[in-house]
Amino acid sequence: MDLIKYAKVVTIGLGFLFSAALVAETITFANGEWAPYMSPKLKESGYVSDIVVQAYKLEGIDVKWVFLPWKRGFEDAKSGKFQGTAIWGYSEERAKDFHYTDTVLNLETAFFIRKGSNFSWNTIDDLAGKTIGGVIGYAYGIEDAEKAGTVQVSRIGKPEGNYKKLAAGRLDALLEDTQVGLKSVHDLGYDGQIVAYSKPLKSRQYSVIISKQVPNAAHLIEAFNKGLKKLQDSGRFSAIIKAAREGEYDQP
């Protein structure tokens, strides 16, 4: 092979390598409706979705979202149809099938009640005899008490139905993330009728979860954790939170 032909072969080879380096790895995650954190109706699919996307992008990974009902998305991710799903609180049951990343956010779960009702609680035992609204597939942190029968959680497919049942007096309270609940109360027209109880149920850590069926699960966990730390250290994480508080993610 003469030098000119050799140079052409080397140039073409380097071109292919360079092109490959520019093509980012792409992963697909299940997501769900959970405004103001995550929703296909919000800018960047919600600010928490944006955090996940930006953290992975810093490590050369693109995230593709598929929005599904939470239960279906969870099961599809569990089977390995998707690499993972975001964001979820820790439970031992989930940890059997998923790896957890570092904490993305600490969120507070609250009881929402009819304004002026005599609902009160201090310990889990105080909830005995009360009918609490919940959503199928959601973990609120009282599942052990629910399984033991100490707490009765009436679960339905969509959260909106619980607000209607609560307003109609068919529930004593419903469980929801505080910020999500406040937005739902406003959006559904229950301002002044439904309020968050003063004592929240608990604060929980929420993470991205990666299916144990995915061969490169360890890589995806490590990449997200590194990207999240870079996002936090650079100040971009705080900037996203600030923008969300100022309503910049409220519209698509």
Q: What is the radius of gyration?
A: 22 Å
Query: What would you call the shape?
Result: globular
Provide the structure class.
alpha/beta
Report how far the terminal alpha carbons are from each other.
Answer: 57 Å
**Second rung of CATH, namely the architecture of the largest domain:** 3-Layer(aba) Sandwich
CATH class of the largest domain: Alpha Beta
What's the total count of β strands?
10
Percent range of helical residues: 25-40%
The domain count comes to 2
Low-confidence stretches: 3-22
Description:
The chain has 252 residues and is α/β, with parallel strands linked by helices. It folds into 2 domains: 3-106 and 205-245, D-Maltodextrin-Binding Protein, domain 2 (3-Layer(aba) Sandwich); 108-203, D-Maltodextrin-Binding Protein, domain 2 (3-Layer(aba) Sandwich). It is 38% helix and 24% strand. The protein contains 9 helices and 10 strands. The chain has helices at residues 3-22, 47-57, 70-78, 92-95, 143-148, 160-167, 178-187, 217-234, 236-245, and strands at 25-31, 61-67, 84-89, 98-100, 105-114, 131-135, 152-156, 173-177, 194-196, 202-211. Strands 1, 2, 3, 4, 5, 6, 7, 8, 9 and 10 form a 10-stranded mixed β-sheet that branches. Helix 2 (47-57) packs across helix 8. 33% of the residues are buried. The model is unreliable at 3-22 (pLDDT under 50).
